[in-house]
TrEMBL record:
This is Nucleoside hydrolase. GO terms for molecular function: purine nucleosidase activity; uridine nucleosidase activity. GO terms for biological process: purine nucleoside catabolic process. GO terms for cellular component: cytosol. The lineage of its organism: Bacteria, Bacillati, Bacillota, Clostridia, Eubacteriales. It comes from Anaerofilum hominis. InterPro entries: I/U_nuclsd_hydro_CS, Inosine/uridine_hydrolase_dom, IUNH, Ribo_hydro-like. SUPFAM superfamilies: Nucleoside hydrolase. Keywords: Glycosidase, Hydrolase.
Amino acid sequence: MQKRPFIIDCDTGTDDAIAIIAALYSDEVEVRAITSVNGNVEHKYVCQNNLDLMEYLGQDVPVAKGAVKAIRDMNLHSNDGTHGPTGLGTLTLPAAQHKQFDPRIAAQVIYETAVEEKGELELLVIGPMTNIAIALLQYPDLPGLIKHIWFMGGAAVGGNVNTTAEFNIWVDPEAAHVVLESGIPMTMAGLDVTLKAAMIEEDAAELRACGTRGADFVADLLEFMFRRRDNGHEDALMHDALALGAALCPECLVCKDCFVDVECFGQYTRGHTAVDLKGRSGKPANVSVALEIDVPRFRRWLVDTVKNSAKLGDK
């Protein structure tokens, strides 16, 4: 089976790392590059997390630095401790000794890889969309070279930064607006659905029993998340892995084609994803929006995908 080429654009955090690991060990995906963006934690931590993770797992995947600020420089990133001080909870990966950053910036990596893949490249976008917007603005022919964008961001209903905005979109709504109006086919795994995608202790135990480096690392991240949950904070939610699940396990989700745009100017609604569920705008649908999730099926897919590391010789 020919693998699907993906670039993962991320602000690695805890659930970002799990999504990356699942993509690396999927039978269906070839990860062509990982690009870093400011978001969950500052960019300096994000890019180092990605580089260290690739060396730790023995993966020959290019890692490129990307945007350190949003298009409108508001210096927004999370400081609430959800992902720990540097993004990986309380875990510390060995610092990469041999692997180096790709000399190109994220936008250039995205464009050049898209050209190489001749229209087959897919993007897993699990942080603010700044890098993607920059690439679209810099390379006008890029929309015709991207097969699909799978993104975690926004919500059909509600938000987590305020009553209407989800974090990834709120950090850089101008970038999200550029991406949403690009004409590229895309699927949105929004907050209102990802809030249901919680892993449980049995999942971590099964991964631990697998005995591979990748599975152990995911189990360690889940254990951090369980402790976080037990202290009254966020559950072991797989926000970003669900965006990958939309691509690789579509039966996990019920989606609806809708017109989606982002509010960039509202005093109280900046970062809100306006999802036209009832078709009242009269505008054509531009996003397939996840509305419902089969949680047990999603959990089974994610655990099995990470456990595939054993078949691939990860020790």
